[in-house]
Design brief:
2 strands; 1% strand; 405 residues; two-stranded parallel sheet; mainly alpha; 19 helices; single chain
Length: 405
């Protein structure tokens, strides 16, 4: 849609709230989403010409409700569905089409998109579509798959959640981790793309932050929600310094810290400090605390690696995954030296992918074994699908090549 950015942003913010209101009132997730898309298109045509209405969400709900009602009337089960819609309409209150949706509709929609019957890729795709407001084409581009393939994935996900009761589930506390993990994965893919020519996909990272802010607003007392938002802000604060003018990767230790977003850092530090003060530390809080130590250090040399190692010691007891263990290896090497780090690396469980080779290469280089380091850099470059990471790793390997006579 060729719209001014403020209107585009407003429509994206309203979309999940409007969809949540329709699904809550009428059910029919798939038909409701179609009706919302039609309402968004109508707004895209009318608002730039006629002006944004005083109650944008109410306008969209009213238009989408009309479209949905028309669609339901044309269905073979018209009578039963109209009776159900009328009953639901009476329960919610007559003439409430302009009323703002319930505050927790977006959260309920997130729980629906992260239903346990869906696999992780389907949860992410459906969340970006229904809650994030991204088009199928945008989601397909983000995942580097054909649009038709992504459309099928989203369609299958909708079919699986058809008939699921809309609303915050009774076991919402048990399902909240799935919601947070989905948002975490979306952010990670945006902050460091796993494949393709770009190092970052800022639209995905920004969307993950926006959605996590929504969850935090609705669940302000949940420490892990606050921790996840803090982690995203503290990590995203470095994004402008992470790449050079040609998109090349700049590692943390070589970044210009003057380019870091200090406002985001302050907000993230405040969030994680307040969360940890409740003395119920969880994985996202610990990851955010580690990010805060990095962000608050005036320079690479002044980074408190002993504190970081202590935080990783706690984190790996809670989440003993290969990525967490690999990050702890780096901290061990910074505190106790590269040889101790290499010994820890040899004891790792699981396969953290190309990053393990990259860490090994860095530690071997620090230890003075340039031949082995060069080979490890080349292995890491061959295993990653990210072109900026490939270029960076190959450049590191080339620097260690023996000089020709």
């Amino acid at each position: 849609m060729d719209l001014p950015t403020p209107t585009e942003d407003l429509l994206r913010r309203c979309a999940p709230q409007v969809l949540g209101a329709l699904v809550r009132r009428y059910g029919h997730f798939d038909a409701a989403e179609d009706a919302v898309q039609e309402a968004l298109l109508a707004a895209a045509e009318q608002w730039p010409r006629d002006g944004v209405p005083d109650n944008p969400r109410g306008w969209l709900i009213r238009v989408a409700s009309r479209r949905l009602t028309d669609a339901l009337r044309g269905d073979a089960a018209r009578r039963a569905r109209e009776e159900r819609a009328a009953a639901l309409g009476s329960r919610d209150g007559a003439g409430d089409g302009d009323r703002a949706p319930r505050e927790d509709d977006t959260l309920a929609l997130l729980f629906l998109c992260c239903h346990p019957t869906l696999g992780r890729p389907a949860q992410i795709a459906l969340t970006l579509r229904a809650v994030g407001g991204l088009t199928t084409a945008e989601i397909a581009r983000a995942h580097l798959v054909p649009e038709a393939t992504m459309a099928q994935r989203i369609s299958r996900a909708k079919q699986k959640v058809r008939g699921v009761r809309f609303g915050r589930p009774d076991n919402w506390a048990e399902r909240l981790p799935a919601v947070l993990h989905t948002l975490y994965l979306i952010f990670n893919e945006g902050y460091t793309a796993t494949s393709g020519a770009r190092l970052q996909r800022r639209d995905l990272a920004g969307e993950a932050i926006r959605l996590t802010r929504t969850v935090h607003r609705l669940l302000p007392d949940d420490e892990e929600v606050a921790g996840l938002l803090a982690l995203m802000l503290l990590t995203d604060a470095r994004r402008d310094a992470r790449s050079g003018p040609h998109g090349e990767l700049i590692p943390l230790g070589e970044q210009d810290r003057d380019r870091w977003d200090r406002a985001a850092i302050r907000e993230g530090v405040d969030l994680v400090t307040n969360a940890l003060a409740r003395r119920r530390p969880g994985p996202y809080q610990l990851r955010a605390a580690i990010a805060a130590v990095h962000d608050e250090a005036p320079s690479k040399e002044e980074t408190d690696w002993r504190e970081i190692l202590g935080l990783y010691d706690v984190l790996v007891r809670l989440v003993p995954g290969p990525v967490e263990q690999l990050n702890r290896v780096v901290a061990v090497a910074m505190v106790h030296g590269p040889r101790e780090g290499l010994a820890e690396l040899d004891r790792l469980d699981g396969d953290p992918g190309h990053r393990a080779d990259a860490v090994r290469a860095h530690l071997l280089e620090r230890a003075g074994d340039h031949t082995a380091a060069r080979a490890a850099y080349e292995r890491a470059a061959a295993r990653t699908l990210s072109l900026p990471e490939q270029r960076y790793l190959r450049e590191r390997a080339a620097r260690l090549a023996p000089e020709r006579p």
